[in-house]
Design brief:
- The chain is α/β, with parallel strands linked by helices.
- 44% of the residues lie in helices and 19% in strands.
- The strands form two sheets. The protein has a five-stranded parallel beta sheet with strand order 2-3-4-1-8. Strands 5-6-7 form a three-stranded antiparallel beta sheet, covered by helices on one side.
- Helix 4 crosses helix 6 and helix 6 packs across helix 8.
Length: 199
Amino acid sequence: MATPMQREDFEKRCAALRSRLCDADFLSNKGLGNEAGIFTFCYDPTLELEARDFFRRLVADADAGKLGESELRAEIHERNLYDVLLCIADAKRILKKLPAQEEKRGQEGLLKQIQRIATPEAFVSAIDWAPHKLGDVLIITGVGEVYPFMRVHNILNNMQSSFRDVPVVVAYPGTFDGGSLSLFGKLKDGNYYRAFDLI
């Protein structure tokens, strides 16, 4: 169960992200030099349901034109990594075979098979859309759901060039200290140095 302090931090992050999505400089990806605008929205994993509800409402508000100024409004492209994984497996025609493969090869064998097909490059390709336009924002969810098949730092390392013009927000059930990601606050999830914490 989340502590009052964790809930307070979550609410601050929700307010900060909503504010950023109404800011023309953020939507234009300005002020970051040559870096891609990648931001972490960290939260306590026990608040997963609240986070899902927040992002659902955020997407609905963006669709209704409620985020941004009259000249520039946010258009959110949410990508749930678990759904992306299922789409990749379906496109490779292995989705329905996965339960039998797990029974035959075990969890480790299944993990290796999926990781050969669902590479970081395959994830980035499935996440992307074209063309990007001013006001587009990518929000990545489902980070905990897709673990251990994919770790988010591997995707972020492969999306630098594809998303240089679009702000990216990673909904992360864990912590980020500016260099290391810790999934669920317990699992070392890799190093990543190009992201900015939302607050």
